[in-house]
User: Fold this.
Amino acid sequence: MLLAHLSPLAASLFSLLAIGSLLFAFVMLGSRWLKDYLLAFTGESWLIAALSGAVGYYGNYHELYLVAILTALFRGLVLPWLIWRIISRLAVERELHVSLQPSSCLVLGALLVLFAFVVSNHLGNALGLGGTVVVLALTVMLSMKLIGFLMLAVRQEAISQVLGLLVLENGIFLGSQILVPGMPLLIELVLLFDLLVIVVSFGVLVRYLVAHVGSTNSRELRRLAG
Amino acid sequence: MIMVEALLVLVVLAPLLAAVVSVASQHATVAEFANLTASFLCVAVAIWLVAHVGGTMTFVGRYVLLDPLGAWTLLCTCIVYALASIYAIGYMRLLKEEQNRLPAFYALFALFAATMICGPLMNNVGVYWIAIELTTLVSTFLVGFERGREAIEAAWKYIIVVSAGISLALLGTVLFYWAGSLVLGPTYDMTWDTLRRTAPQMNPALTQMAFLLVLVGYGTKAGLAPMHTWLPDAHSEGPAPVSAMLSGALLNTAMLGVARFLTVTDAASSSMLPRTVLVAFGAFSLFVAALFIVRQQGIKRLMAYSSVEHMGVLALGLGFGGTLAIAAVLYHMLNHSLNKSLMFFGAGNAMRTYGSREIDAIRGVWTRFPVTGALWLAGAVAITGAPPFGLFLSEFTLMRAGFATANAWAVIAMLILLIVIFIGFLNHFRAMYFDALTPPRSPLAAEPGARLNAWMTVPMWLALVPVFVLGIWWPQPLWHFFEAVAADLGGGAR
Assistant:
């Protein structure tokens, strides 16, 4: 297995990239501006693309180069561009009503990372991989998952929710690059395609929201209950 | 083999073709009948497949799978698709303001059916996830089809909640792949079969965590409480044929994933934890459904919560395990698919006639439409699990199976909650059939509403008669078929 005997340089490079992506997730948590979210998401995607390339290089998985290029292209360019187009059509630039202040979100996010670390450390030890980059990858994967859910829970703008979902996705993708670099190429390609379809669907739905609800804030969506 | 392969291609291609024809023709009648033809073809193929499936077969480089469980789910899906297609013709014609969007509706409808048909046939675990995700994307636009404020709200909640939930299933899938890669090496074909064969060497802690993630993920899609929050909104806001498809077909395809992952987890460790969690989700779903059914005000939301209830029953059965429980689960799946379609058709008819989705506004159903009313009432009695209908038989068998397991407490809970649901559900029907309209509401007679046509009552007959027959006669061949599935699922009771 690749991860058990990595060169120290490779291990630290992987760690750096993974932690960098996690930091971007925190940037999203700590801001209220939709464009900040988008930029942070883009940065995160580029780091993940770099990670794919690095794993491909050090692990001799040449098909990962292709994945890296496609990730940069799709997650780093096409998706942000699509979302940019949606944002620029909306009258909203930032979250107006937050149910939790960004500062509190950061603290909560830190707690979630701690929780993710405890779980990953436990799993890592159970697998006899404690102290390796595996634990870090698992931690980042679970943290991004939890942070994505936190964003979905406390942010109310439609765009924030879409980006929250994409952070969930990014977390899984990042983790899978380190944990299961040998995942068949076909699956990865289909996943990328799937992501594209999701974002297009969201674009259409946001347009409906504007046209028929008159707002993209989910606070307005409370007619259906019980 | 060639024959089966051709039929599998046909069953996926037929709805896709119908979608293409609908878009290309831009003509409502052509779209209606293209869709109808495709759905009948699908049912015929599905019946043939169920009758002839012998063991597990794989095609196209092991990406496509036909096994008894998949064939059965496929059959349930196709039956609902056919019933809903008949009903849609009558129902959608009544939506006066949507007439020029009908081809788009049928294209989406057929596409939705195609994605649901693909799900059970996917052998690769990752591709199965994608098929399920695609069902969400397509059906979102069906839920929001009427473009009202509520419909868009429901569609938005649906896509956000389900996408977030199902991303957990993806995480679980990646962890399963990882657990397998620690045994098989970094690259392998992650099929259901490979996973199960490798499972005994996998790390139990890792597989359990992966299973819990998958359970929450696909459980969201299957409408298990407390992840069910999207379900009442989506099921009540879509047009009635769409509600029937969501409820009778879609939930099953997601439940199938839970069932298949459960066998992998079973093979990995002998821990009771995964099953107990599944049983707990099932019991909690019944509990939540009971609470919301008793005090429900919307007619389609009532049906939606009944779906939460029945998915809870399926989860309980899967959690119990063993041949008897698996047989009961499969029988219940079919009965529920038929019966819930009937209920949504009736609800659609009532909504169209009375021009309201509130239970309070629907009064005097007997006098308004005696035949449809009788069918709907019989369906209501059946869906609450009263004899002599199929659901009574399957729920009864399921309880018998449950008593023999370590989770017998859940059977007691199930029994009590089913009685509560029975009373609550039928109380609404009593009011709708026998109560006079309450004074504050103006009599709706001023707006005579739409006249029901044969397209809207025939599928109700087609659904009710089998539910009745299955209630008094559990065919022997079906029993053997269920035994085969249970053996496939490694259904040893613990």
Remarks:
- Residues 442-446 of chain B have pLDDT under 50 and may be disordered.
